[in-house]
Here is the input.
Amino acid sequence: MVKIIFVPGNGGCTTQDNWFPSVQRDLESRGLEVIAATFPDPELARESFWVPFLIDELKADEQTILVGHSSGAIAALRLAEQHTIFGSVLVGAYYTDLGMESEQQSGYFSRPWDWKRIRENQQWIALFASEDDPWIPIEEPRAMHAQLNCEYHEFKNQGHFGGDYVKLDFPELTLAILNNIQVHTGAQKSALSL
Here is the structure.
């Protein structure tokens, strides 16, 4: 049985912010298990805390879909370098520290990315980006898309998918999850459709 783990961004964000609650309701209404936990070290979201928490406490495994927003997406990528998961949804993702001290302190950018292993350790990846993201230059997710050869959704006006651009509903994300579960498990379409 597939389970979905939400991974929020840094700066004190939680899985009760932005679009997480509406996506959780949508997925749970289709009988899917969704874990929306409170993460340790919420300000910096350091890799040394978050990846072990995902593995040891939340039991991320080969049946897990990680839904990461911002630095939560980066945690999902680093986890997938070392562990097999079912798939991931990356929202407002980036691959450099963007010249920000808090990102440098997170530990995620201390070494090169192993894009091949990230791809091979999961069955699918969906990436959501927006041209008007005030934090992430659009070149970052476009370059990630090229490296990951993944499903890619680019918007013009969704900002960072949270914060100043509060997005309370995210049906495109829900649909990406449901479609990929169906494709990769053979689940019946009627049970998962929107």
Observations:
- The chain is about 40% helix and 15% strand.
- The chain has a mean pLDDT of 92.
- Residues 171-185 form the longest helix (15 residues).
- The helical segments are 20-28, 47-57, 71-82, 101-106, 115-120, 139-148, 171-185, 189-192.
